[in-house]
Specification:
There is one protein chain. The chain has about 100 residues and is of the alpha+beta class. The protein has one domain (about 5-95): Gcn5-related N-acetyltransferase (GNAT) (Aminopeptidase). Helix content is about 25%, strand content about 30%. The protein is built from two helices and five strands, in the order ββββαβα. It has a five-stranded mixed beta sheet with strand order 1-2-3-4-5. A hairpin with a 2-residue loop joins β2 (about 20-25) and β3. The longest helix has 15 residues, at about 55-70. Pfam families: Acetyltransf_CG (PF14542). GO terms for molecular function: transferase activity. This is N-acetyltransferase. Keywords: Transferase.
Length: about 100
């Protein structure tokens, strides 16, 4: 992740079921749902004006850090998140049991 976004505020919008990061007045988000100790990451969206700046990877990393810190597991239903985890093996340990990359 670019160090540019290391200190960018990250929040959980429980009402909208989204992990969110505001950058340059726009909000990037990952939609999620939960069941037991599993977090299902279903859709990642980065506003068009922010495309290509590393925002998507930054919010995925912050989301995975949150999941790890809270002793949860991840089910990456979103192809962007699945690709990120696939190319960053350090996150494979968070995958829900039975999930294969």
């Amino acid at each position: 992740m670019s160090s540019t976004y290391e200190n960018t505020p990250f929040k959980i919008n429980k009402a909208a079921q989204q992990f969110e990061m505001e950058v340059e007045g726009a909000t990037a988000f990952i939609e999620f749902s939960t069941k037991d100790d599993k977090v299902y990451l279903t859709h990642t969206e980065v506003p068009e004006a922010l495309n290509g700046k590393g925002i998507g990877s930054a919010i995925v990393k912050k989301t995975l850090e949150y999941i790890k810190d809270n002793h949860l597991t991840v089910v990456p239903s979103c192809s962007f998140v699945a690709h990120y985890i696939d190319t960053h093996p350090e996150w494979h340990s968070l995958l829900s049991e039975g999930y294969q990359m």
